[in-house]
Design brief:
Low-confidence stretches: 1-15
Distance between the termini: 20 Å
Largest sheet: 7 strands, mixed
Strand order of the largest sheet: 16-15-14-17-23-18-24
Number of helices: 16
Structural class: alpha+beta
Strand content: 25-35%
Keywords: Coiled coil, Glycosyltransferase, Transferase
Helix content: 25-40%
Radius of gyration: 26 Å
Number of strands: 28
GO molecular function, one term: glycosyltransferase activity
Protein name: Glycosyltransferase
Pathway: Cell wall biogenesis; cell wall polysaccharide biosynthesis
Family: Belongs to the glycosyltransferase 2 family.
């Protein structure tokens, strides 16, 4: 969750009595619904072919579809498939039943199909129906360890066919655990109200969840929206609204874990971003899966892109701690592909799941405590790593997803880079043995590229993150409020960090000439040295140069001394200008900071490890929630 500047709010750490249903386990039905047949997306922007592909005439509703005579419906789609491989590998389930109600004019053909790791399809069962009523097909989960899924295909023969109440079910466990949803928000009142309303729109999902905690850290309050008021009436006493200081995504999500675990140490929590487009069915699928895993398991939803809603961000992610790199694609996982055309047949096992939507089992909180108060960025990564070290794996469940803002529309040169730098070092220090010399070389290379690209504010941001990491865990005492305010203030001294409307940027448009980039240099290190020397001595092309986002590479921009670069958001431009004095000062600071990193890393690493139990304790978070927020 993006976190703008801290604002004054009223802290209310006492949320009152727990919803009654959250306090007890629930009696399980004879069979547990683990997936429903959905035929229409929850929003008009969503392509219905993510749910079912139809040839011929049809009329769709959310939970039903009518096929005209001769039409066919194929549910081998993103949301239509049953992720058989994941269910066989991670749960106690040995067979699955799929059933539906049919209204048949003449005849319907139904096929249950399966795939394998290579995408080869096979027919598991096939029936023909000539009378209206329900049908059930059963299939063992015995050939899917490495990959594969199951799905249905329908054909309307000689007349119309209506399909409704489609459900995949399994033998239910002895009991169903209570589950709550925790949504963290900061001044995105409209988005948050929409997300809550989406959850409340599905009666089956509302019945399945026991509480919804809305943790509001802003000043533009969700509770002031009419849509929220209307939704509150639907959710009744299941809805809990909390206000607190702006402690970032880490503080907001942790509040949900903190509250729920206080009510019931056996209740699971689904963490959910405020600004997503929510698919309510995903909540049902995550919760059902978590109730049937062999061991308590973190169960995450996948992320589809908000602006390109057919596209999957990544099938599963892992972290490369020694390089301070998270969001790394698990080998063989799909990445940035349209799910209208691709299927993730191979089972890919995640290292962690980001908290756009992720279920945290109660046992994890009881065993490892709460997240670390690092404001935002890497908090979900750290918690996933810590959980795995304690024996709890993460499963990113295919065919369960929400739509989240596309990452490549966010500019790398942002104040959030401070937290990404500082927190990656903190997480690395906690969970691996960092190589100070290797990291120094890595940082020096990236900082050098930023310097020749005239991104002085980005260099400042990176160095500030390293410096504050080296100052030790005392910098986390307030949950990140002061650090966030300080980095925003410090970046204001660097004009190229400011985004301007393209039409009114502070340059003479008639003097602006666009220059396209050539290919990436084959000897990047040599080119970097050459560009640095040319920048230092002013051997650059003069005048005002325009550079598109796709051409904004350091080796291209460093050819010039005054550049107007399109921001990644496509909502404006940044103006970069060569400044030798700033470059010299930042280079000196870089050498000093990296020398400190090489010398102090072992001791600082020990300090963070020693402080972890205190930082993640209930007492520490209770103190943060009760603290007086800043006034600006």
């Amino acid at each position: 969750m993006d976190q703008p500047a801290a604002q004054a709010v009223t802290s209310e750490p006492d949320s009152g009595a727990a919803p009654a249903s959250l306090l007890v386990d629930h009696q399980a039905p004879e069979r547990l619904v683990v997936q429903r047949g959905i035929f229409v997306g929850p929003w008009p922007t969503i392509n219905d072919e993510l749910y079912a592909v139809v040839k011929g005439g049809s009329q769709r509703e959310r939970l039903s579809i009518q096929l005209n005579k001769g039409a066919e419906a194929n549910l081998n789609t993103y949301f239509g498939r049953f992720a058989a491989s994941y269910w066989q590998r991670w749960t106690t389930v040995t067979e699955v039943q799929v059933s539906a109600t049919l209204n048949v004019a003449r005849r319907a053909r139904i096929k249950l199909l399966a795939s394998d790791i290579a995408g080869h399809r096979r027919i598991v069962d096939s029936i023909e129906v000539t009378e209206s009523g329900s049908f059930t097909m059963t299939a063992p989960l015995d050939k899917f360890v490495d990959g594969g899924a199951m799905w249905l295909e329908f054909a309307a023969i000689g007349g119309d066919v209506e399909i409704s109440d489609l459900a995949w079910t399994v033998d239910a466990p002895d009991h169903v655990r209570p589950v709550a949803i925790a949504i963290c928000t900061f001044n995105r009142a409209d988005d948050c109200a929409q997300t809550i309303a989406a959850l409340a729109s599905d009666d089956t999902v509302v019945a399945a969840i026991d509480a919804v905690f809305v943790v509001d850290q802003g000043t533009d309050l969700v509770q002031d929206r009419q849509l929220y008021t209307e939704t509150a009436a639907k959710l009744g006493d299941k809805l809990r609204y909390l206000r607190q200081p702006n402690l970032g995504g880490a503080g907001g999500f942790t509040r949900g874990l903190y509250e729920v675990s206080a009510f019931n140490e056996h209740a699971d929590v689904i963490l959910m971003d405020d600004d997503i487009l929510c698919e309510p069915e995903t909540v049902l699928r995550l919760n059902a899966f978590a109730n049937l895993t062999v061991e308590p398991t973190l169960v995450g939803a996948q992320m589809l892109f908000l602006l390109n809603p057919d596209y999957l961000n990544v099938g599963a992610e892992e972290v490369h701690l020694h390089k301070l790199m998270h969001g790394q694609k698990v080998p063989k996982a799909l990445r940035n592909v349209s799910m209208l055309n691709k299927r993730q047949e191979r089972r890919v096992d995640a290292g962690y799941n980001a908290w756009w939507t992720c279920l945290i089992p109660a046992e994890v909180v009881a065993r490892i405590g709460l997240p670390i108060p690092i404001f935002f960025q890497w908090d979900d990564v750290e918690y996933g790593i810590r959980a795995r070290e304690a024996g709890f794996v993460t499963v990113t469940l295919p065919n369960a997803a929400v739509w989240h803002a596309d990452f490549y529309w966010k500019d790398f040169d942002d104040w959030a880079r401070y937290f990404s730098t500082r927190n990656s070092l903190i997480v690395g220090a906690l969970h691996t043995e960092l190589d100070a010399k290797a990291l120094s070389r890595q940082f020096f290379r990236s900082i050098s590229e930023h310097l020749v690209a005239m991104q002085y504010g980005l260099v400042y941001t990176t160095l500030k993150g390293i410096e504050d990491f080296l100052d030790g865990p005392k910098g986390l005492a307030d949950g990140g409020i002061e650090a966030m305010a300080a980095i925003r203030k410090g970046r204001a001294d660097y004009p190229e960090t400011i985004k301007h409307p393209a039409a009114t940027a502070p340059v003479q448009s008639s003097h602006l000439h666009t220059r396209r980039a050539s290919g990436e240099p084959s000897h990047a290190k040599l080119i970097l040295v050459k560009r640095a020397i040319d920048q230092w001595f002013g051997r650059t092309q003069h005048g005002i140069i325009g550079v598109t986002r796709e051409d904004a590479h350091w080796w291209h921009i460093s050819l010039f001394d005054h550049v107007v670069v399109t921001d990644a958001s496509q909502s404006g431009v940044r103006v970069r200008q060569r400044d030798k004095a700033k470059a010299r000062d930042l280079l000196r600071r870089t050498r000093k900071v990296l020398r400190r990193l090489r010398q102090e890393l072992p001791a600082v690493q020990k300090d963070y490890r020693d402080a972890l139990p205190t930082l993640t304790s209930r007492e520490n978070w209770e103190r943060l929630y009760a603290a007086k927020p800043p006034t600006s």
